[in-house]
Amino acid sequence: MPEEHQMVNEVLQTSKALVRHIKATTLQHMLPRKVKQEVDTRWNTVIDMLDSLLSVYDEIQVLLGERKEDEMLPEPREFLEQLVELLRPVKQATAELSASKFPTMHLVLPWRKKLEGFYMAAANDDEAPAISALRKMMLRYLREKFVIVDIHQIAAFLNPRMRTLKMLTEAEKRAVHARVKALLPVMGSGLSSLHSKKPTTSRASTFADFEDDLVPDQEDDEIGLYLKTSVPPSSADDDERWILEFWKNKETELPRMSKLAKQIFAVPATSTACERTFSLAGFVIDDRRNSLKPEKVDDLLFLKSYYANASAGVTEDFPEFSKKFNKVFRSGAEWIRMVENIYGSEWSE
User: Fold this and answer.
1) Distance in angstroms (rounded) separating the CA atoms of residues 60 and 74
2) pLDDT given for residue 126 in this prediction
3) Cα separation, 153 vs 173, whole angstroms
4) Residue 277: CB partners within 8 Å, gap ≥ 6?
5) C-beta of residue 305 within 8 angstroms of C-beta of residue 274
6) How many Cβ atoms from other residues are within 10 Å of residue 302's Cβ?
7) Could you tell me the end-to-end alpha-carbon distance of the chain, in angstroms, rounded to an integer?
8) Whether the predicted pLDDT of 119 surpasses 70
9) What is the largest CA-CA distance in the chain?
10) What's the rounded Cα separation, in Å, for the pair 229 and 213?
11) Are 131 and 11 spatial neighbours (Cβ–Cβ below 8 Å)?
């Protein structure tokens, strides 16, 4: 391991040991805020741990000094602060891309470009050599592992506020438009009512081969209309699902692109949502309920998902939720039995 990387590893190991020590002694009760432990299976817990230590760093320093345990404190403090600032964009990106109550696929491309720009930026004069080396390593891994494919670019294009694709070259923009145009024909009927049709006559024109086609290219027509659409700028008050509302309102004007957007935005950017469902299944199927039929497990998991999404208003944009709900719960008595399976019989008392 290079010397620069060894320093980062030593700081992390010292921080982990300090958190374990604080939690195993009475020191935690003497601190104004709790320190957090890093968990191997949880994303972003490294930066959460370092952040929690920095928030009470002065208090920890005093307590360790009184106990003659100064060697347990990760130093220097400036190094920890630089390390946290280097990791913070990754935490923000993974948090947004792992969301499950609003679309995330359109965020992949801009976050890839944002992270690349952040790690390509020149280091500050006071940045530690180990942090600069880690910055270069993270940039290399970002380019190797964070691969952009067609669906990411198409999703970014279907984000009305990024439809000009400023982060791409002109050649890449044209390629995205071509891929969208190729997908639109399979999205169903388009704007036939808005198009002029060829005049029909009882006899074919002698020069039909030379006449212009009066029917515009429907795919180009929708893409052109979309590019000219007026979209209000983003604001802090925006609902996270505004993009679904936009395409819902465009179902008549842009029918094919609206269907394409619905299909694209139904795909999560990461597997986190699936992993959460697997974890939930582990709570549903336990030692006392190991004979549940697969269909019943599916219904229970759906119930949890339905109410989680209903509280966020997602079910209003996706009527399929309600269709499934009506299919699962055929009567009030069955609905109560389902809820009791999750929350216990005291729920209905």
Assistant:
1) 11
2) 87
3) 9
4) 301, 305
5) no
6) 18
7) 62
8) yes
9) 103
10) 26
11) no
How many structural domains are present in the chain? 2
Cα separation of 306 and 325, whole Å? 8
Tokens 């700028």, residue?
233
The sign of the torsion formed by the CA atoms of 289, 294, 296, 301 equals: positive
DSSP state of 121: S
C-alpha to C-alpha distance for 164 and 151, rounded to whole angstroms: 16
The answer to whether residue 308 is domain-embedded is: yes
Please report which confidence band the pLDDT of residue 218 belongs to, taking 50, 70 and 90 as the band edges. Answer: low
The pair of structure tokens assigned to 176 is 């995205």
Q: What digits encode the pLDDT tens for the residues 82-101? A: 999 999 999 999 999 998 88
Residue 140 lies in a domain: yes
Q: Residue 282 is part of which domain span?
A: 272-348
The predicted-structure confidence for 125-183, as pLDDT tens digits, reads as follows: 889 999 999 999 999 999 999 999 999 999 999 999 999 999 999 999 999 999 999 99
Cα angle 302-303-305, degrees, rounded to a multiple of 5: 60
Give residue 55's identity as a one-letter amino acid code.
S
What was the pLDDT predicted at 199?
A: 41
**Boundary-marking domain end, from 148, 171, 188:** 148
Residue 200, pLDDT above cutoff 50: no
Between CA 152 and CA 304 the distance in angstroms is 29
Residue pLDDT, tens place only, 275-331: 877 787 887 887 877 888 888 888 777 777 766 666 555 545 555 555 555 665 554
Domain edge (last residue) among 148, 176, 205: 148
- Answer yes or no: are the C-beta atoms of 156 and 162 closer than 8 Å: yes
Q: Is residue 208 part of a domain?
A: no
CA-nearest of 168, 166, 327, 160 to 245 is 160
